[in-house]
Specification:
Length: about 180
């Protein structure tokens, strides 16, 4: 009887942590990506709260519980795709300055579907360093990818709470490896 109960628990746990099903999402006429079927576009309020920078994302999607986010931001750039190897160090330094602590899992220039990308995969911690603050540090698992199309820098980001990293790492890599840009 115990053996049967153990099998039922394993089966339920396996179903609970099953990888999400992905579907193709056309972000623009030229750009598509695979995202979990239950991800939805962020509302204007979500975007204002999550991405307070002056450059609004071209696209932003979130999970039903609003814990996992994907975005694509596009900015003008004077650099070209051939400059990505050099730019990798600049963007790495920017990430290091942004977070209280960052541990890189992967940092490389790689080919995704025929296009070169700078890819950073990392775990970060952002602590509130104000003296009177009692806020706990925020820890995340992220993949950030950069590429240049013509005179446009494209930044793809996927952020997952650190406690979900082990459940989401394979899916996150699949999502970010699915970026398709028509030439």
């Amino acid at each position: 009887m115990r053996y049967l109960a153990f099998l039922v628990i394993i089966l339920i746990a396996g179903v609970a942590f099953a990888a999400p099903k992905l579907k193709k999402v056309n972000i623009t006429k030229e750009i598509s990506i695979l995202l979990p079927k239950d991800f939805t576009p962020m509302t204007d309020d979500d975007i204002a709260r999550e991405y307070p920078a002056t450059t609004r994302p071209l696209a932003a999607y979130t999970s039903p519980d609003r814990n996992i986010d994907f975005s694509l931001t596009q900015k003008r750039s004077t650099f070209r795709e051939r400059d990505l190897e050099m730019l990798r160090e600049f963007y790495k330094a920017n990430l290091v300055e942004t977070f209280t602590n960052i541990d890189f899992i992967r940092q490389e220039v790689t080919d995704i579907k025929g296009r070169k990308f700078i890819v950073f995969e990392f775990v970060s911690k952002l602590a509130d360093t104000r003296v009177a603050s009692n806020l706990k540090p925020v820890q995340q698992y992220s993949i950030v990818q950069y590429t240049i199309i013509g005179n446009q820098l494209q930044i793809y980001t996927l952020h997952v709470p650190f406690m979900l990293k082990n459940d989401w790492q394979k899916t996150a890599r699949e999502i970010m490896g699915s970026v398709q840009i028509k030439k």
